[in-house]
Amino acid sequence: MAEEVKLFRTWSSPYALRIVWALKLKGIEYETIFEDLTNKSPSLLQYNPIHGKVPVLVHDGKPVCESLVILEYVDETWKHNPLLPQDPYEKSMARFWANFGDDKLMKSIWQLFIAHEKDQDVAAVAALENLKLVEEQLKGKKFFHGETIGYLDLAFGWIANIVSILEEIMSLKLVDGERFPHLSSWIQHFMDAPVIRDCWPPRDKMIIKFQVMRENYLAPATPK
Ligand SMILES: N[C@@H](CCC(=O)N[C@@H](CS)C(=O)NCC(=O)O)C(=O)O
């Protein structure tokens, strides 16, 4: 019997995009279920009762939640075109940096994006320091694990897309070729790969979405 693979996602989620790319790189057929996060479907809440978030991958009726966990599940289930390094130390380092990306880097860039003007310089220093750490991981490499796209490229994929969207909205350049030569060249290689390029959400829609989010964060609280 053919396997049943379903992906619950939204059109814009950078976390879900990791799984779209992984399934594409592995050549796995799947069904997409687009969620409206303002009105989550009963299925999403059933499959991810703890967080109620996308992405959720459902494989033959079994749900897997959290994008980095799903990436590992995909890699271990369909072993061709491996995403994670095979060496245990390399693998643990890949997990470490992926967690750093979500826990520290993404948060610091978001803090900068929603900072009021007076707090922007301090927020920028934190974001740039974190970006510098990623830059160092890319020295002498085309992709994070060498010559082909792998787990960490997918985990950091949002940098290639969302950072430039936030930069455009803030009218501020964070990742430039002079300050971040390795990261800039990685972004170019990553964006140029057809498997990646073909899946980007529409940029104009993303700009509007993030603009609205920023305005909502920066709007003064209305008195009660
Ligand atoms: N750590 C989660 C984060 C997923 C996440 O934050 N997804 C957002 C969409 S980008 C979501 O579903 N938000 C709905 C909510 O917070 O209720 C992962 O890696 O999968």
Automatic annotation (TrEMBL):
Protein name: Probable glutathione S-transferase
UniProt GO molecular function: glutathione transferase activity
Claim: Cytoplasm is one of the keywords in the record: no
Species for this entry: Coffea arabica
EC numbers: 2.5.1.18
Domain GST C-terminal: 87-224
Keywords assigned by UniProt, alphabetized: Transferase
Lineage: Eukaryota, Viridiplantae, Streptophyta, Embryophyta, Tracheophyta
First-tier enzyme category under EC: transferase
Family membership noted in the UniProt record: Belongs to the GST superfamily. HSP26 family.
Catalytic activity from the UniProt record: RX + glutathione = an S-substituted glutathione + a halide anion + H(+)
